[in-house]
Amino acid sequence: MNRDHNPHLMHIIRQAGGRLPVALIRESLTEGEAHATEMAFIAAIGRERNGGPLVNLTDGGDGQVGWIPSELTRARIRAANTGRKVSDETRAKMSAARKGKKKSPEHAAKIGQSRKGKKADQETLAHLTAIRRSPEWREAARQRALAQHKAMTDEQRAARKARISAATKEAMAKPETASKVRAAAVENYSRRERTPEGRFA
């Protein structure tokens, strides 16, 4: 065990003479069932961070759900990653690992809050723009949209259409938004290729 991983737990183990009691709760579980059981017990008893007696750093299961690193840990991670470039192969593996995983509303809210007021630099914006204009990205986005549309009921489709319509009307009522839309339309129009007869390709 890494002694720096959970110093509180190491202190408890030392006080117990180097060993902790072990209780067998369930047997012959799959990995998923074991993770679910662990998370259920931790949630029922309660972590110290949430007012309970347990010193677990996470909510249990597979991964680091519920782990909140200390400022010292954050500083170490930042220092270790500074100047490090991620290879395309590693990026692909990270992307594949994240696919299909949905963030909880609380997690999404925390991410949104942490990004408020932060602006991406021009290099990052240019990189993102290039990605979103690529045929691969557009095709993937189209497939995602089709899959979402097929999964909806008629009522959900109608409600979604109404929300989009209302949001569009509200946005277009603002002069600055209407101006941006017109400018984008003019730019797209000028980029379209024409046939020798003068028609759009």
UniProtKB/TrEMBL annotation:
Ranges where the Nuclease associated modular domain occurs: 65-81, 82-98, 99-115, 116-132
Q: Where is the composition biased (Basic and acidic residues)?
A: 189-201
Region Disordered, annotated ranges = 82-123, 148-201
Reading the lineage from the top rank, the first entry is Bacteria
Which InterPro entries is this protein grouped with?
NUMOD3 (IPR003611)
Q: What Pfam families does UniProt report for this protein, alphabetically?
A: NUMOD3
Gene Ontology molecular function: any one: DNA binding
What protein am I looking at? Nuclease associated modular domain-containing protein
Q: Which organism is it from?
A: Burkholderia multivorans
